[in-house]
Amino acid sequence: MRRVITIGREFGSGGRELARRLAEGLGIEYYDRAIVREIAKRTELEEGYVDSVLEKASLSKFPITEGRTFYDLNDPVFDMRQSIYLTQTNIIKEMAERSDCVIVGRCAEHILKDYDPLKIFVYASLESRLKRCRERGPEEEDLTDKELLKKIKGIDKRRAKFYKGFTGDDWGDRRNYDLLINTSFRDIKSIIPPLINYIEESAKVYFKAD
Amino acid sequence: MRRVITIGREFGSGGRELARRLAEGLGIEYYDRAIVREIAKRTELEEGYVDSVLEKASLSKFPITEGRTFYDLNDPVFDMRQSIYLTQTNIIKEMAERSDCVIVGRCAEHILKDYDPLKIFVYASLESRLKRCRERGPEEEDLTDKELLKKIKGIDKRRAKFYKGFTGDDWGDRRNYDLLINTSFRDIKSIIPPLINYIEESAKVYFKAD
Question: Per residue in A152-168, pLDDT tens?
């Protein structure tokens, strides 16, 4: 039995924590920073630059072609982005082939559609996400609530725009997922045992035996 | 601890079976036909007529007012509908107050919002819903696949339209639910144990102690 699980998530919903704990609970790989490191290695670019391209994704139309890249010498920045996304796509597929794993974001459910992953989307109310961001750490402590809300909405908007450009689908649309979990004011830990139970039951239907 | 669970569902997604099995598993009430019977009793209308009004709901704007009804002697059909919906609203609230229960459809998550229910939405691919309708029984056996698909889409469209008119929200929009479950080609029975586990964990957060 193989288990490839993709987790889309709204910013501040606890999706990353859920992904990490789920991978731990299932005893399978959790891929996050490793993807960025591997892209940096293969493209010979700085991790920071790769990060900034991935994070600032703002391509409304993204002519991704798998297996080859269009080179346009007049637009090296476009080429560079194209190359980073293509490399990311290849790495994600290699990871899914190599072993059971949980992959967060990165349109992984779209990239891995031929692998029949279990597709989860994690979301929460703005109020809850604000609270979770505050508790998470010092990164946003200098922001007022209004500024932090603006940041949360901005990141979601960028993710939705990129998702639309990359996949043609609406980000967070239930049609693209097997399960959507509202984590508003919930302890993420409490979701893991029933989720593992659900995945084990799903496996009987979703995942083919090796 | 109180448990009120509402289940919205696409036609043919197995939502009703899920609701019934869930109530059984939790050992709590499952309300479905009992609501129609009670409306018929209170309004002194035939069950069949109540059914047809509830099923053919096509009000795009529905000026529901809780506690009183507008009487317009010029439009007795409108009055009758208004009265049926108002009675249903009251009955659903009474049921939620009386004991733990699972209620399917009927915009119950909206009607019961002050009761902080656990809100579930059940959906599936058209292909899976077609298959489930075929397996379910003889009701649609005379329809071709094309006709049955048209029926499925038509019922969903009506539900969405009524939901919008009644609640102001989009039917099936994740924001209005705690959990959305894709039942495509899944055995509904296999979803119940993890769901009960999830609900028991949720209860620690969602439901107040008595």
Answer: 999 999 989 888 888 89
